[in-house]
Design goal:
The protein has eleven helices and seven strands. It has about 475 residues and is α+β, with helices and mostly antiparallel strands. It folds into three domains: about 1-190, Four Helix Bundle (Hemerythrin (Met), subunit A), CATH 1.20.120; about 220-320, Helix Hairpins (Orthogonal Bundle); about 320-475, Heat Shock Protein 90 (2-Layer Sandwich), CATH 3.30.565.10. The strands form two sheets. The chain has a five-stranded mixed beta sheet with strand order 2-4-5-7-6. The longest helix is centred in the middle third of the chain and has 85 residues, at about 130-210.
Length: about 475
């Protein structure tokens, strides 16, 4: 986001600098053209003055010849001034054809000056009248030449004036365009920056409100750059909060179960032990009828079942700390499979490569035996008409973990129940206590492992247990 903002800002600054430089260049060019035009107009005015002085000299010369009103010294001064004015025209900067005509005009002006001097200085010359006529004719030609030169120069100045005016107008419009474009770009950039900040912030604000309402599954998506990293951190925080909330709920459930189990064990188990003893004594009496004896035996069985339920509750609520030793999973799994009735009667086929040697791990053998036994019983219960129980052991040497995948060919688990099957007292069985899988998860958590339930692609339930190979050693230390 920062790089994008700096790139956009640099681009705007570059465009404004280039545009301003271009406008300044055009303005300077227009000013230079106007300065040149002013000088040229000044020279044209000098040329006009030359023409006027030529006519004045001619006019005064005629008057001098006819009436003698003009003194010779005054005429000579006028002639000298005419020569200076004519020579000043040669300093103008014109194209070569015009410059040549100006040079020719200046030379004729000098010649006219010389002949006029002779006319007024040598009044007693025998050819004075002829010289006077020649001066008059030369002055007339000089005037016509200057007038033609003035006309062409004026036409040239008119064209250059139009060009200078065009440059000035173009500079003005360029200045307007750059100013308006700069404002538009600033407004557009401000809008984009505000939008790029407000939209992600609104998404994050919505996410915080969702979290506040308890929706820990809400995720912030579609953000990029720094906001994308912030969204990823927020999503990770939301997932972590959900995990911590579930762990907190589970801890509260364990505490509650511990209190209930302790109370029931204290208040109920002793009376049950007395009832069980009484029923066993009564059932052993020979005077009791066979039908009554069967009822008494059934009561003893129910008492045993209730005691087993209390035992499961105590084991779940207050599990014994694991005793980590070096064990092999093959021996534990073999021992658990020996106590499954449907496997012994060959109604369920076990499929696993027991010859494959897995590494020795640090774990509590009794805890793992209880976990595997519970999962095997659930798997065979899901296949009342027979099926296949598969066990696959996989070792990940990089992560130093070992995984055990247990699957069956039963009806599987409903997708809506996958998140609830590890909760205490949740069961889909008519006579289940709902503590079997909850106890399995508790025991696996004590081993710093994980247990995940899903449905296999081939059908049936799939439980994946992952255990650290050296987790027991770390925990013991």
């Amino acid at each position: 986001m920062k790089k994008r903002f700096l790139t956009l800002l640099s681009l705007i600054v570059l465009i404004l600098v280039l545009g301003t430089t271009f406008v300044i260049f055009n303005i300077e060019q227009a000013i230079n053209s106007l300065d040149d035009l002013i000088g040229r107009y000044e020279k044209d005015r000098n040329c006009t003055r030359v023409l006027m002085e030529v006519k004045k000299v001619q006019h005064d010369g005629i008057l001098h010849r006819t009436n003698g009103d003009t003194k010779n010294n005054e005429m000579l001064n006028q002639i000298v001034a005419l020569g200076k004015t004519a020579s000043s025209c040669t300093t103008c900067h014109h194209p070569q054809p015009v410059a040549d005509k100006i040079k020719s005009f200046s030379q004729k002006g000098v010649a006219f000056q010389d002949i006029m001097k002779q006319v007024f200085e040598h009044t007693d010359h025998p050819d004075h009248e002829l010289m006077n006529v020649q001066a008059f004719i030369m002055g007339h030609e000089l005037y016509d030449h200057g007038l033609d030169l003035f006309t062409k120069s004026s036409q040239q100045l008119t064209g250059e004036t139009k060009v200078a005016r065009y440059l000035a107008i173009k500079s003005k419009w360029l200045l307007y365009i750059i100013t308006c474009s700069g404002l538009v770009m600033v407004i557009f950039t401000s809008f984009m920056l505000i939008r790029s900040f407000t939209k992600p912030l609104q998404g994050l604000l919505t996410a915080t409100q969702k979290i506040k309402q308890g929706d820990f599954d809400y995720r912030v998506l579609g953000l990029k750059y720094e906001f994308g990293e912030l969204a990823n951190s927020f999503n990770a925080m939301s997932a972590s909060l959900k995990t911590q909330m579930l762990q907190l709920q589970r801890s509260e459930q364990l505490v509650t179960c511990g209190k209930i189990a302790t109370t029931l064990a204290h208040e109920v188990r002793n009376p049950l032990a007395g009832i069980k003893a009484a029923m066993e004594v009564l059932s052993s009496e020979s005077a009791v009828a066979q039908e009554d004896r069967e009822i008494l035996i059934q009561v003893v069985r129910e008492v045993d079942r209730i005691e087993g339920l209390f035992t499961n509750m105590l084991e779940f609520a207050r599990p014994k700390p694991p005793q980590f030793i070096s064990v092999g999973l093959q021996e534990i799994i073999d021992r658990a499979l020996l106590f499954i009735p449907s496997i012994l009667t060959q109604e369920v086929t076990v499929c696993w490569d027991k010859e494959k040697i897995s590494p020795i791990i640090n774990a509590d053998a009794n805890h793992l035996y209880q976990v595997f036994l519970n999962l095997f019983l659930n798997a065979t219960a899901a296949m009342p008409e027979g099926g296949t129980l598969s066990v696959v052991i996989t070792t990940n040497t990089t992560a130093e973990t070992i995984s055990v995948a247990i699957s069956d060919t039963g009806c599987g688990i409903e997708e809506t129940l996958l998140d609830d099957i590890f909760k205490p007292f949740f069961t889909t069985k008519a006579k289940g206590s709902g503590l079997g899988l909850a106890t399995c998860k508790t025991l696996i958590d004590l081993h710093h492992g994980t247990i995940v339930a899903s449905n296999s692609p081939e059908g049936g339930a799939l439980f994946l247990i992952t255990l650290p190979i050296s987790g027991g050693t770390e925990n013991a230390s």
